[in-house]
Write a structure and sequence with these properties.
CATH superfamily of the largest domain: Histidine kinase-like ATPase, C-terminal domain
Number of helices: 21
């Protein structure tokens, strides 16, 4: 007891460390920007740009410019009101210094500064300052240009006027700190895509990007959209054949909530609804999405009944029916936005549901009445989807019933593992009987299952669910995984927590892998989101010299191995060759490996390499699948022509 009292006495106020100013940010940067790699690095830009977007949403800013400078710095400028520079009554310092050097200081915590703000979800420009080795703020305001410089969050001098200006605005220049970030390389495409999205969401605001990092002419982009999210829907649908010409669009405000919605149906089968709150992409949806969905289903059923398209004996269209082939963007702006969910990207404001429902329902009813041609196309597509749903239900029931009866012995082609713990179990989806045979013999039966596929599975990008479920290979895969598909998927029932796609290192293998990835993305996406899907990395070569042998997983690795064994720098690419006693074997198929080799190189957890499948951008992933796997040939041809120069190890 005495020891316990002594330990307690040693824990005193002296043990409490108080980090002043921005020190907490530098101590634990991941708490403020997520991580210190690529995502966190780009978060610095998003935070600074968010302030400019807030000025634009408040109606004070028309131009935003992002410039990548040759010295590695980033400059973000806007023509908004400019950050105030007068003395702050509480801190007794300039308001500019207070904003730049104090956590949770700014104009967004009271509604006088901004009615709505995209920065509410973020951490503020002060965190950018803390994580930058150098930052400079230039403010055009009150007829002058004011300036203050900082190093790692510390002001180097007081705010002072350095010139005169008739205009207003803010220029923030910063250099990410090399002591904080594991990478300092900003990705041009990542920034371009984000700014394009922000320009769609903030209509009539010009966002310019200039990249001066490379020698020669700078890269430049400029975004300006009069149509706002209606232009966004047109962009999202550009790879699809539209089901109707006119895009529905509405923007209205009710009780302090601004609602902006645009939609258009296409002749594909996928649903793409992107939702935003205060320009933040709410990837988990939320109240505004619920309001939109309920209104869409109710209005289309009401219209179909009123026009006698749906008879009294007919069942109502379901939510799935009315959203097949739908591309929509739902953007709301609310005061005091409340974000929930696992990634804090789900809108929780209850008032947003009813207001979104009301505004959209009223406007969409009018649209259908005033555009009978569009209404006919939309209702016709929904009816076809309804009939396909009924056929799919029968097919799905058949698949699951087969799984329950055979299965619980599962598909005959599946060589299951003995473990019944999903957390410890793996399933390898392999190409053909030859590779399947090697994998079955080489695996560890305790935790590794093997499912060979015969031939190429169906391209689900071009098929409805009823046709998909009639495909034997897909049926076997669904039953083996045990979690159902589509809107009925339950990853808690997944029989394996490591699902590994293992195909040959040739064109056919790549095609099969792409078909499987398309199926997982479209119908088993929670499997990807949960981190359960992987791609095996079998070696391309075996390099042997006498008793020495080593596997190479790339051309570069093969060359390094051979260079270490011989003085010969120039080689040929025959599948098997002799170079001064060096044997090089090229593996084009998994079936060419004996079971021991396959285990050692590709399946042994101690030595294998696998890539986890992740989705950084749902919109970009969706667009890529549409290009590669959709019915339209022209975009795919363009993609191949522009990307062919990056292909390595092409087998013809």
């Amino acid at each position: 007891m005495a020891k316990k009292q002594k330990d307690t006495q040693q824990y005193t106020a002296d043990n409490i460390v108080v980090l002043e100013g921005l020190a907490p940010v530098r101590k634990r940067p991941g708490m403020y920007i997520g991580n210190t790699s690529t995502e966190g690095l780009h978060h610095l830009i998003w935070e600074v740009v968010d302030n400019a977007i807030d000025e634009a949403m408040a109606g004070f800013c028309k131009n935003i410019k992002i410039k990548f400078l040759p010295n590695g710095m980033v400059e973000v400028s806007d023509d908004g009101r400019g950050i105030p520079v007068e003395t702050h009554k509480h801190t007794k310092k300039s308001a500019l210094e207070t904003v730049m050097c104090t956590l949770h200081a700014g104009g967004k915590f009271e509604n006088e500064g901004y009615k709505v703000s995209s920065g509410l979800h973020g951490v503020g420009v002060s965190v950018v300052n803390a994580l930058s080795s150098y930052m400079k703020a230039e403010i055009k305001r009150d007829g002058k240009i004011w300036m203050q410089e900082y190093k790692r969050g510390e002001p180097q001098a007081k705010v002072k006027p350095v010139g005169v200006s008739r205009s207003t605005g803010t220029i923030i220049t910063f250099q990410p700190d090399e002591k904080v970030f594991t990478t300092l390389e900003f990705q041009w495409k990542k920034v371009v895509d984000r700014m394009r999205q922000q320009a769609y969401l903030t209509k009539k605001v010009k966002i310019s990007l200039i990249d001066q990092r490379d020698k020669g002419a700078p890269r430049e982009y400029e975004f300006y959209f009069e149509g706002g999210i209606a232009s966004y829907v047109r962009h999202l649908n550009q790879k699809q054949e539209a089901a109707h010409d006119n895009i529905f669009y509405v923007e209205k405000e009710k009780d302090g909530v601004n609602v902006e919605i645009a939609l258009q149906y296409n002749k594909d089968y996928q649903e793409e609804v992107f939702t935003f709150a205060n320009n933040i992409h709410t990837v988990e949806g939320g109240m505004h999405l619920l309001g939109f969905k309920s209104a869409l289903t109710r209005v289309l059923n009401s219209y179909a009944r009123k026009k006698n398209i749906l008879k009294e004996k007919d069942s109502n269209l379901t939510g799935d029916d009315v959203r097949e082939g739908l591309t929509a963007v739902v953007s709301v702006k609310v005061m005091d936005a409340q974000f929930e969910g696992q990634t804090k990207s789900k809108l929780g404001n209850a008032e947003a549901r009813g207001i979104t429902d009301h505004i959209f329902a009223d406007s969409f009813e009018i649209f259908l009445e005033e555009h009978p041609k569009e209404a006919e196309a939309i209702i016709g597509k929904c009816l076809i989807a309804s009939r396909a749903r009924l056929a799919a239900r029968a097919a799905r029931d058949s698949v699951l019933r087969k799984g329950a009866l055979d299965g619980l012995t599962l598909p005959g082609k599946l060589s299951d593992c003995t473990s019944r713990s999903p957390e410890l179990s793996e399933i390898y989806i392999v190409e053909g009987d030859s590779a399947g045979g090697s994998a079955k013999q080489g695996r560890d039966r305790e935790f590794q299952a093997i499912l060979p596929l015969r031939g190429k599975i169906l391209n689900v990008e071009r098929a409805r669910i009823d046709k998909i479920l009639a495909n034997n290979e897909i049926k076997s895969l669904i039953i083996a995984l045990g979690a159902n598909i589509g809107d009925q998927i339950d990853v808690e029932k997944l029989r394996y927590h490591s699902i590994v796609i293992m195909t040959d290192a040739d064109v056919d293998g790549a095609h099969i892998r792409t078909l499987l990835l398309t199926f997982f993305y479209r119908y088993l996406k929670p499997v990807i989101d949960g981190g359960y899907l992987y791609i095996a990395q079998p070696p391309l070569y075996k390099v042997q010299s006498g008793k020495f042998s080593k596997y190479a997983y790339s051309e570069e690795e093969k060359d390094e191995i051979i260079t270490g064994l011989t003085d010969i720098k120039k080689k040929t690419d025959d599948s098997e060759e002799e170079i001064k006693g060096v044997s090089i074997q090229r593996y084009k198929g998994l079936g060419e490996m004996n079971p021991d080799q396959l285990w050692e190189t590709t399946m042994d957890p101690k030595t294998r390499m696998m890539k986890k499948v992740m989705i950084d951008s749902a919109e970009e992933a969706n667009e890529t699948f549409e290009i590669l796997m959709g019915a339209d040939v022209a975009p795919r041809k363009h993609f191949i022509q522009t990307q062919a120069k990056y292909v390595k190890n092409l087998d013809i």
